[in-house]
Amino acid sequence: MATSGTPYYSYPGQQPHPIPISVPDSKPSDSDSPLSSSISQSPLVHAFFTDPPNTWPSDLSDKLLQSTSLSASPTSYVDLYDNKYVLKTNTLPSAILDRPRLAHEIHIMALAGPECALPILGRHFLHGKINGFVTEYKKCVLDRRLIGELGPGHTHTNGVRIDIDPGVYKNRKEMIFKFVALLERLHSKGILHGDINPSNLVLVDSDLRFIDFAESVLESSPRPLHPKNRVLTARYNSPTALNDTFAPLTRADDLYTAGMTMLHMYTGRLPFADLWEGEDMDEVEVEERIMGGLRPDLSVIDDEEVREVIARYLQAGEPNRQATSL
């Protein structure tokens, strides 16, 4: 195995130990697609794929896992187990592990650090092969219990359904400014998140952290990992982003989605929920309206300071606007 130095990396609860920078000299198998040199030379990524099972504090095997599904998409599965940990797996359409995409997300999370992301505590092994990564479970800003049918913990304000976590909603102005600080920390590291919305924010003590870095990129090289269209959450994205999902991610994209996220956090309602309820629109129709230039109504924000902050972020992500710094 060739190495170009032995930096130290410590896992939670373990003493630091040397991790070789480079990948093994042997050629990867067909199932292990080669990674870019910068990612393959990451100590954390190398250790993630080469450390033996049970080396990390929260390594799991398929025999031990009894989980509950939190979410699923064409590219990933997210499961909760033991009400303490979250397992995420990145997959190809054929349900085969997308190793480059998984390695990319791990690399970005390591660069983001604990002040922006949740630490990776372990790996999940399926039939002896790595299948995903494990983090601690933290409550999401978007309270999934409050979406759809009425259920326990449901909150109403003037008869309107609220789907933001009750604690976040109660202190929404304070949490919005904590979110602004979080995004500034991430951007100061040269990282663009790529899919900012309340479902990708979690509560850590009294602060916020990002999750789901699958679409994240370094601002210095904003082309997505694979030359294909990015996966976007339509209601939070600008018309420009939705009309060209093949375009490289920019800081303006993050700023616009941040503005829409703050709008959701403050109102407690999904962006453009009035269209859904008033005109019985489906998601495709709402997306088409946004692509046609639909903008949110900020008059619903009754706090002038919050309204001005949201307006600044949305304007920074508007089409044909050169200045995107805040």
Compile the SSE list and pairings.
Layout: E1 8-9, E2 17-18, H1 37-40, H2 43-50, E3 60-61, E4 67-73, E5 76-81, E6 85-90, H3 99-112, E7 122-126, E8 129-136, E9 155-157, E10 160-162, H4 166-170, H5 172-188, E11 191-192, E12 201-204, E13 207-210, E14 217-218, H6 239-243, H7 251-267, H8 273-279, H9 283-291, H10 304-316
Parallel strand pairs: 3-7
Antiparallel strand pairs: 1-2, 4-5, 5-6, 6-8, 7-8, 9-10, 11-14, 12-13
Helix pairs in contact: 5-7, 7-10
Euclidean distance between termini CA atoms = 46 Å
- What can be said about the biggest beta sheet? 6 strands, mixed
Rounded mean pLDDT score: 79
Helix amount = 25-40%
Low confidence ranges:
1-34, 147-159
| Tally of helical segments | 10
Q: How many strands in all?
A: 14
CATH architectural category of the largest domain: Orthogonal Bundle
Descriptive overview:
The protein has 326 residues and is of the alpha+beta class. Helix content is 30%, strand content 17%. It has 2 domains: 33-136, Phosphorylase Kinase, domain 1 (2-Layer Sandwich); 144-316, Orthogonal Bundle (Transferase(Phosphotransferase), domain 1), CATH 1.10.510.10. Strand 9 (155-157) and strand 10 (160-162) form a beta hairpin. The longest helix is centred in the middle third of the chain and has 17 residues, at 172-188. It is globular and about 55 Å long.
What features would you highlight for this structure?
326 residues, nucleotide-binding, alpha+beta, 30% helix, two-stranded antiparallel sheet, Phosphorylase Kinase, domain 1, Kinase-like_dom_sf, disordered N terminus, Kinase-like domain-containing protein, ATP-binding, six-stranded mixed β-sheet, Transferase(Phosphotransferase), domain 1
